Amino acid sequence: MANISQLLSLMAILLSSIMINHLPVASSKQWCVSKQTAKDDQLEDNINFACSNGIDCRPILPSGACFKPNTTISHASYLMNDYYQSHGRTNEACLFFFPNSGMLTSTDPSYNQCIYK
After folding, report:
1. DSSP letters along the chain, please?
2. Percent of the chain beyond pLDDT 70?
3. What's the Cα-to-Cα distance from 76 to each of 80, 98, 112, rounded to whole Å?
4. Which residues share a beta bridge with 31?
5. Of 91, 88, 89, which Cα lies nearest the Cα of 99?
6. How far, in Å, CA of 97 to CA of 99, rounded?
7. Which residues form the X8 domain (predicted)?
């Protein structure tokens, strides 16, 4: 009887480890994007800030992967996130540098060919 109990315990451990390896893992990745309530002039300031502080702005140009949709909020979100990602992914890199217009999200904002880092 002890052998059966040990065998069942071993099988339970093996099955548990198999199941755990197939569970989705929650991502701790975050992105900095524009708030839906942000004003266009704030977002334009954010675009200018990012582009003048070392962020590659080519993806939001007409031939870039993130040009469409051609909206200020979309372009600002991409650049704000690029700034956030390249400056240590700190709250400050999103919320301080983009006050009242930036927010952190755990939902990947990438779409089509526009891949957010």
Report:
1. -HHHHHHHHHHHHHHHHHHHHTSPPPP---EEEE-TT--HHHHHHHHHHHHTTT---GGGSTTSTT--S--HHHHHHHHHHHHHHHTTT-HIIIIITSTTTEEEESS---BTTB---
2. 77
3. 6, 10, 17
4. 105
5. 91
6. 6
7. 30-116
Residue type, 12: A
CA distances from 8 to 5, 19, 101, 107 (A): 5, 16, 57, 41
- Phi then psi for 97, rounded to 5 degrees? -75, -20
Residues in the chain: 117
For 3-18, what is each residue's pLDDT tens digit?
666 655 555 454 454 4
Kindly state the tokens that stand for 15.
């099955």
Using the structure block, give the residue that is written with the tokens 């400050």: 92
